[in-house]
Amino acid sequence: MEKDFPKAEKDVALNNYSTFRIGGKARYLIKASDKKELEKAIEKSLESKIPFYVLGGGSNTLISDKGFDGLIIIFKKQKPDVFIEEKDDFGTIETDASTPLSFLVGHLDGFTGLEWAIGIPGTLGGAINGNAGAFDESIADSIESVEVLEINKGIKKKEFKRKDCGFDYRRSIFKSNPRLVILSAKLKFKKGDRDKIKEKIRENLEKRRGHPKGFSLGSVFKNYYGEVDKAVVKRYPPVKNFQDKKGFVPAGFLIEECGLKGARIGDAEISSQHANFIVNLEKAKSENVLKLMNLIKKEVKKKFLIDLEEEIQIFSPQTIDKYFI
Length: 325
Ligand SMILES: Cc1cc2nc3c(=O)[nH]c(=O)nc-3n(C[C@H](O)[C@H](O)[C@H](O)COP(=O)(O)OP(=O)(O)OC[C@H]3O[C@@H](n4cnc5c(N)ncnc54)[C@H](O)[C@@H]3O)c2cc1C
Fold this sequence. Notes:
The chain has 10 helices and 17 strands. It is an alpha+beta fold. The structure holds flavin-adenine dinucleotide.
């Protein structure tokens, strides 16, 4: 392995690669600066029979304190290449999965469709994987196609059209199948009025101002789109109001109603600003976070008969099996 990856760092603390500042050590870590390097790293790890895991900005991944006895590939580039092709009223943008989402928002001069993404950390690859979104929009709305490495017995390069990506609310085929590694994507945007675009970006930033500041992964659970028990709806009229107005019940509302704001285990705390955020006050462990998440699920189930589903991804020895090739 050392021969194959002379540039790999060894025994690397992964907390530095997550916005949550949580995570044990990885045996190896490589920063891939472009898709060729990413591909090469994956090829080598398959040859060496060392499991790998790709991270972008680490802003949606809870990394276990137990770390990873394998290779972490960081696919994130601060100054990426973004190619824009204009035709009629549209622009097609092609860029690597390593491009930070915020960079893309800033780069879309005169095109509309990504204003919702302002303030969301992480990369395009991570956003496509989790179909990131906000304010009723998501990355799926702009995707034309995604270039992917499919890893089975060997490696195959494939193009997935949007309809093949299995996009749904915070879902994609990539999220459910870690053998699909995203290399790059083509996105399509409409030309728009520059002042209106700026204004929308400003408004969206303003909406985020109330979000907790510290180390976090953003929203931990998905909002609830399913049916709610009739007796529960009767007992909690705001549930019906949310369903009628928004079409879902916000996870933050459910957690707050359970009186869990400010609940703390170790240094992990359910934010008192926004109940669907868990913040790492300083030295939180992944175990602390998992326990808080279980507490949330248990209390919400008890009070509302609702099973909350995680929005964040959990990367731990229990989930690592599926990354073995
Ligand atoms: C303060 C804050 C606010 C946030 N607000 C929002 C929000 O409004 N809406 C929202 O949707 N999210 C939000 N998030 C969550 C997160 O920022 C987004 O989901 C982001 O798109 C994740 O990107 P990432 O590169 O950091 O992903 P990572 O955490 O690095 O990875 C997430 C998953 O994607 C996989 N992955 C990463 N890159 C690739 C690749 N190239 N190919 C295949 N798989 C890959 C990883 O293996 C992992 O399973 C927020 C987070 C924070 C901290």
